[in-house]
Amino acid sequence: MHTDVLSQTFAALADPTRRAILARLADGECSVTELAAPFDMSLPAVSKHLRVLEHAGLVTRRADAQWRHCSIDAGPIKSIVDWAARYQHLWQGRLSRLDAYLQRVQSTSKSTAKPKETDHARKRRR
User: Fold this and answer.
1) Is the pLDDT at 124 greater than 60, yes or no?
2) Sequence-ordered alpha helix ranges (H) in 1-126
3) Taking the domains of the chain in order of start, what are their residue ranges?
4) What CATH number does the domain located at 5-74 have?
5) pTM, whole model, 2 decimals?
6) In angstroms, what CA-CA distances link 50 with 42, 54, 74, 75, 117?
7) Which of 8, 108, 121, 123 is deepest in the core (most CB within 10 A)?
8) Is the sign of the CA dihedral 89, 95, 97, 99 positive or negative?
9) From CA 6, how far away is CA 4, in angstroms rounded?
10) pLDDT tens per residue, range 23-36
């Protein structure tokens, strides 16, 4: 079954472990062993996560003798950004309406606020 790039990318990013792996790779290339270190799982389990990320085009691996080095490929992430940008006007409109509402509420509360008492109007207790 053929899955589009956007669906593969979202599916790969749906797992928090894979997102954590990508966050680590955003700092630079590292080995599979280094990627596996912070996780409480086996090396084969981490390798399965890497295969999903590779299949989605988010990670590339290269061999150097017995070591496997991984790096991030942000190309598919750009497709998510481009997709989300098409809906940007929706949330920007909502934020603009929220801002206008808050401005109205703030100006209304200032005009109906009671004057503050002054210190000289209070009597001191002895």
Assistant:
1) yes
2) 5-13, 16-25, 32-36, 43-55, 75-85, 88-111
3) 5-74
4) 1.10.10.10
5) 0.68
6) 13, 6, 15, 16, 66
7) 8
8) negative
9) 6
10) 999 999 999 889 99
Judged against a pLDDT cut of 70, whether residue 118 lies above it is answered with no
b/e sequence 15-44, b meaning 16+ C-beta within 10 Å: eeebeebbebbeeeeeebeebbeeeeeeee
- Written as six digits, the tokens of 89 are 């006007």
Task: Classify residue 108 by burial, with Cβ atoms within 10 Å: 0-12, 13-18, 19+.
Answer: exposed
> Tell me, what's the pLDDT at 119?
58
68 touches 54 (CB < 8 A): no
Is residue 61 a contact partner of residue 70, using CB atoms and an 8 Å limit? yes
Dist CA 7 CA 116 (whole Å)? 59
pLDDT tens string 41-73: 999 999 999 999 999 999 998 887 777 789 999
Quick check: 85 pLDDT over 70? yes
